[in-house]
User: Fold this.
Amino acid sequence: MRWRALVFSSSAFGGLLGFSGALPQTPEYFGQDETKAECCMTRVILFNKPFNVLSQFTDKGTAGSERETLSSYIDMPQVYAAGRLDRDSEGLLVLTDNGRLQARISDPRNKMTKTYWVQVEGEISDAALEQLRRGVVLKDGKTRPAQARRMAEPAGLWPRNPPVRFRKSVPDGWIELTISEGRNRQVRRMTAAVGFPTLRLIRYRIGDWTLDGLESGRWRDA
Assistant:
């Protein structure tokens, strides 16, 4: 097991762990302060969660459940997911052994941006993209403005197991959507609200942490 020392100034350390300020957005922030006024031992890992895997280490909700959990992929004590990713979604999950850091990353009040690659049913229109950018009215209120654009299928994208079910008579396409909230199943509800249901959902980025170079089912230190 490899532990990593992360060094902060007193002001930066306070902001990160909730004493003041907001959570930094960049991984480069960690360990760069020259004053070395504060030091803590924290581990942050990035995991590319496969489809049908729960964002937790145990499945206590169903007796005898055969649903996969993080324990099938990560054999490391005392790290916990900072935020969640639905079982039927894939992609980036950040885990840490620092409870305060975990809370800061997952708390939607900190407005840490998250970018998703979204395969939708249909060829999304300019009008629908503009709706996503301006904010969509959902049952729990209007969403914050988002960044939305068309994109090609991500290069080197791993196959999903099981594969996505398509309707042969309906085309599909990909969009990149960046939001700063964390409502329940928000991205799926947003695309459905503008008329383009989500077929496959992959979280690519949290802050400046990304999936780059990380295969499905694998993890690495941040």
Remarks:
- The helical segments are 10-16, 99-106, 126-134, 186-193.
